[in-house]
């Protein structure tokens, strides 16, 4: 019985070690989130230097959908590892007062920035390109927006679709078609 308990603890320990914590601002904090000065031009430059894609993740205190994403989606090792390896994630508080600088050079609070970007729901995940045109905002420059909480497969497919730059491909496979194809592929693999 003791061996079974010890094995169980050793099996679950990595999951608990990688679990999100709650910050002083009431937001979930993942090990792969970056603590930056929230100057998006600097964040983009740093992401590019690291060979990663910049993501702006907008959340708020008490958001049940944010909690769901952190507990049920981002906690999965395959998803956490993929994000950590390929993305530079900056968290923004929908109602926050922390000063930040948008790509267009405007300095404003997090809550002013999220209003400027027209974001109403949390979580909202903005995926940015490697280069942003002068005068663009985070919202206008984004190559994709993930508005709300989604399941593990949809989330991983969105991060993969962006990372592989499938939005640039000259084809009829937009994200919805890509995701539908991936669902069919997973079902076929499971049936084998």
From TrEMBL:
Entry-linked Pfam families: Thioredoxin_2
Thioredoxin-like fold domain boundaries: 48-136
Keyword set, alphabetical order: Signal
Residues making up the signal peptide according to the UniProt record: 1-19
InterPro entries on file: SoxW (IPR041737), Thioredoxin-like_fold (IPR012336), Thioredoxin-like_sf (IPR036249)
Protein name: Thioredoxin
Organism of provenance: Pelagivirga sediminicola
Membrane spanning residue stretches: none
